[in-house]
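WARN retry 2 of 3 for item q-0093 after timeout on previous attempt; input resubmitted unchanged.
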Amino acid sequence: MLLRSSSARWAGVLLVLLLFVVGCGSGGDSTQAEQETLTKKQFVRRMQAYCHRGYKKQERAMEEFRKAHGIPITTTQAQRERVNTAVVVGYVEKRIAYLKSLPVPEGDEKEIQAIVKAMESGLEESRREPASLAKPFDPEPFTENRHLTGEYGFWLCGQA
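OK item q-0093 returned
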């Protein structure tokens, strides 16, 4: 009888814990980004940090792609286009997604929308004309984006 009593108590404790854990879920439909507000300084710091980490990963991915496909360090125009299309475009997509996921500082909505639009425009142009991203010329697809992100403060994110 003592065993049953002890087992019943443990079952009760586990049931209470289970109900507690289930009851601790989110109570509303709002996302964390909607609940959080950022100052411009916080927004800029997050974007700069994200882009800094992203560029390190992008460099490694470009090097791995280059090695995996037998592309030498000194590349031709066609090889640069191949690497950029395979690697860089994906990182720009991730950068845009991250930028869109952050809560925009109050009053800066138009500036951030312009940056997103410039990034997306540069991305579209890069897909249409891969040579534009690989050539050293100005304006390249991300010239406007580079200018806008520089003005806002997260200049590193303006690079392709």
